[in-house]
């Protein structure tokens, strides 16, 4: 893969990172750039999800052709849709909230994810601090890996390129690739056919398609597990929902 293609992949991961966080800025300004990137990479498998995603913004044929379209949702609309899709606390967006047998295994997985980050100097923090296993954090790590890969390729350091590629393969195999499909399914749970104009529903499916396409390019086969076959990770015995402020809000 040439350097331009690596940078293009990084741009997709950067877009998904920003778009899947709780919005504090209107990321729709960057949306018109997404289709040309996917077109340039020849990722035809992503176009159906992308077309449905663009349709949420009345982009119509203009958006599908890579033009600006009419992306007319306001920031408050995006925030409302984010809460409606992912919940008030965004609990659907965390890898270790699904499928772990207990809180100890959850801690082990979190430590493994953090180990990937430390190995490449990726620090979790900033104004929107999230857990290491948050979907946007994992996507941002793949963005950083792609940039490091592009830099190593530009410098002609083949062994560093291979290190980045192997890290991406391992991270997709052991973490993001294992649960991104479950995340996309959970985003659609409870949404009626009338609600399929929700941009985050299609953004979730687009993110899953991007990750699966990237895994396929690395020779990985992603297991498509069904959400109803995976149990939520149980809470620790010392954790109770009774005192949670969110629970109090729901009772009002």
Walkthrough of the structure:
With 252 residues, the protein is an all-alpha fold. It is built from 10 helices and no strands. The termini are far apart.
Question: In a few lines, what is going on in this structure?
Answer:
By secondary structure, the chain is mainly α. It contains ten helices and no strands.
Task: Provide the descriptors you would attach to this structure in a database record.
TorD-like, 252 residues, mainly alpha, 10 helices, 58% helix
The CATH class label is Mainly Alpha
State the CATH superfamily name. TorD-like
Unreliable stretches: 59-70
Overall number of strands: 0
The chain-level mean pLDDT equals 82
In which range does the helix fraction lie?
A: 55-70%
- Total of domains: 1
Task: State the helix count.
Answer: 10
Shape: globular
Query: What percentage of the residues does DSSP assign to strands (E)?
Result: under 5%
Sheet with the most strands, sense and barrel status: none
Per CATH, what is the topology? Answer: TorD-like
Rg, nearest Å: 18 Å
Oligomer: single chain
Q: Element order, helices and strands?
A: HHHHHHHHHH
Proper CATH architecture? Orthogonal Bundle
Distance between the termini: 55 Å
